[in-house]
Amino acid sequence: MIDDSLSAEIKAHILASFKDTEVIKAFTEHILSEVLGPAIKKELAKRDEKIEVLQKQLDEKRCNPPLEEMSSAVLGTSLDLDFFIWCEVDMAFQLTSEAALRDWVVTSDRDNDEGNSWGELVLGRNGKAVLRGTLDTTVPRDGSKQRTGYCNMRCLRPQKSFKRDSFFDWSQYTHVVLRVRGDGRSYMLNLAAMGYFDIMWNDIFSYPLYTRGGPYWQVTRIPFSKFFLTSKGRIQDKQSPLTQDRITSVGITAGGVSGPFQLEIDYIGLEMDPRHGEDFAYEMYQTPAYIAGV
């Protein structure tokens, strides 16, 4: 900016000199090299330093060649692990909007005339999904049920073209990750894997979801190898690993203890950890085929 203390003649001379293209070019080069140059170099140096720090942190999280060999042994295939970074969670369900909640269905024993429990899935004041309600384990007196008291939320089954049923293919991941804030209750995380035959339509793989209660959020990582097979609410004697490429729905169940419950859910995500080498956490006993019930 031209100083106001300069005389009118000097101002006129400077303005006239700017009409010359060579003068403008020289003046621009002078400004860039002498005035802006040091400032730009300083900012570029700061940027390079930040990039170097981020690159170092990324290199620490990236899978190195020995882990690539490990992943090949664990997963049975060779993966380009540059796409899988430790502690990076791929979102499967981000429950932070009304539109996202419309993909979930909430049921309870009251809906089936089996009890007096009720529940709902709403968007809380913090912008996260809240599964809340009241459980009642009082058994109906008509003798039709031996136990009751549950509430469940379940996502809709994925579909492909022309509304054909499809599956969630999570075979490239090793863990399911949830960010929740609970009330101290234990919930059950359910992964339905409906099979082809009708006796497999009720196959659900489950694992407990423990919550601490209190005001703090918790991030829970559950390996897929820990999920055990259930059918119609009963743990099966003959177990089998979860078929991760044929998951039909995801659900969370509250039950067991009468009283109010509340579970706040931010997201349900997926993580790939090549250090996890477990295929299945439970023993699968080989029983003779002639033994009934197994």
Automatic annotation (TrEMBL):
The keyword Transcription regulation does not apply. Keywords: Chaperone, Mitochondrion. It is found in: Mitochondrion. InterPro entries: Galactose-bd-like_sf (IPR008979), NADH-UbQ_OxRdtase-assoc_prot30 (IPR013857), NDUFAF1 (IPR039131). Its main location: mitochondrion. GO terms for molecular function: unfolded protein binding. The keyword NAD does not apply. One of its GO terms (cellular component) is mitochondrion. Transmembrane segments: none annotated. Residues 93-265 form the NADH:ubiquinone oxidoreductase intermediate-associated protein domain. GO terms for biological process: mitochondrial electron transport, NADH to ubiquinone; mitochondrial respiratory chain complex I assembly. Belongs to the CIA30 family. This is Complex I intermediate-associated protein 30, mitochondrial. The lineage of its organism: Eukaryota, Metazoa, Ecdysozoa, Arthropoda, Crustacea. The gene is CIA30.
